[in-house]
Amino acid sequence: MIHRSLASCIFCKIIKGEIPSYKLLETEFSFSFLDIGPLSRGHALVIPKYHAEKIHELPDEYLADVLPIAKRIALAQGVPDYNILQNNGKIAHQEVPHAHFHVIPKPSVSDDEG
Ligand code: 5GP
Ligand code: ZN
Fold first, then answer.
1. Would you call 100 a catalytic residue per the annotation?
2. Dihedral sign, CA of 47, 52, 38, 71?
3. What is the ipTM of this complex?
C-alpha cells in the first residue's frame, strides 16, 4: 500500500500497479523495479511509497528504508562496482518528480558496454 500518492505521478502509478514494471523488491516503505531505460544491465530504481519530489520532503522512515534496499539490490547484481545516484530537481537532472534512487551496476567493459 502506498502511504501518500499523487494521481498523475507515474511512479505512484507503478507502486499501485496501474503501470506495469519489473518489480524487484517491496517493503512497507519502498518499491524497487528495473529502470525502463537502463544505463547498464540491471539498472534499478528504489522509490519510497510516499509521494515527494525531493528527498528532504520525505519523512525519515522512508529515507531510512532506501539505502539498505539499494545495498541488497547492488549485491544481487553480482558485479563488484556500481553507482548509487539520486537527483533532486530539474536543474539537477531529475526527470520524474517522485524521489528515487538509481542503483546502476558497472560491469567490466568485457562483460557489458556500461
Ligand atoms: P531521473 O532523471 O528522474 O533521476 O530518472 C528517472 C528514471 O526513471 C530514468 O532513468 C527513466 O528511464 C526511468 N523511468 C521513467 N519512466 C519510467 C517508467 O514508466 N518505468 C520505468 N521502469 N522506469 C521509468
Ligand atoms: Zn509519486
1. yes
2. negative
3. 0.99
Domains of the chain: 10-105 (3.30.428.10)
| Identity of residue 85 | L
Of ligand 1's listed atoms, the one at least distance from the Cα of 85 is 4
The active-site residue out of 43, 98, 100, 102 is 100
Over residues 71-81, the pLDDT tens digits come to 999 999 999 99
Q: Is the pLDDT of residue 47 over 70?
A: yes
Q: Supply the pTM of this predicted model.
A: 0.96
Q: Which residues line ligand 1 (CB under 6 A)?
A: 10, 19, 21, 33-37, 45, 87, 93-96
In angstroms, rounded to a whole number, what is the distance separating the alpha carbons of residues 107 and 36? Answer: 19
